[in-house]
Amino acid sequence: MSEWLVLSLAMAAACAVVLSIAFFNHRRIGEDDDPNETPDVIEYMTMMIGVIYAIVLGLAIAGVWEGRGAAQEYVRQEAQALHEISVRSQVYPAEVRARIRSDVDAYVTYVVGTEWQAMADEGELTDRGGELLERIRRDVTDYEPQTDHEGQAYQPLVDQVAVADDARSARGSSAGATMPGVVWFGLITGALVTVGLIFTLQIRRSFREMLLAGLFSALIAFLLFLIWDFDAPFGRGISATAEPFLTQFSHLDLGG
To answer: Which chain regions cross the lipid bilayer (predicted)?
Structure first.
């Protein structure tokens, strides 16, 4: 059974149970019942819907903010691993060391100058970036250490290449939007319902009430925009930055 069908049936069943109870309870009430003795259910339901929607908004903001923070951490790990490769290759012969550092610089330059924009536009990594990282891997793994000192540095260098590769893959997986469409449907529908419930409370055209209604609607719109902006960690205004690459490879002309 489709999960959408299950969701639809669950929502329909919940509505049916509540309406059935309300219908039978209304038939049971006598003619002498005074509804003024009970609290106004409209105000209570409006308040509860607002509270529930505020919780959902808070969870959504926390989720996309955490995703942005994780994306920035992947960038830091990748930049740090590449920096370690460049530094630790110092123990290798000049020719090997120069080749490793040259390929590391070429990869970093490509990531910051080209691949970063590709992630923002298309939400995915490029094949060229993978080829440049593979070249670094070959530089490190294909060399046979000639001394004990080089042998001791070999495995840590291989490990740092693996760390850089893993961080790159994680960066790629977080490049696109992470919020599912069904969540956006719930957020937008909840916003419309929450704002629409203002009109069930007999809002008047006084300046104070109209101002509060406008500010409330603007606040919800702002929070939805914030979620949308954080949802693509590399593609929108408040996005993850390439600052770790700029810091670790300051000798390169990377801009920023």
So the answer is: 44-65, 181-204, 210-228
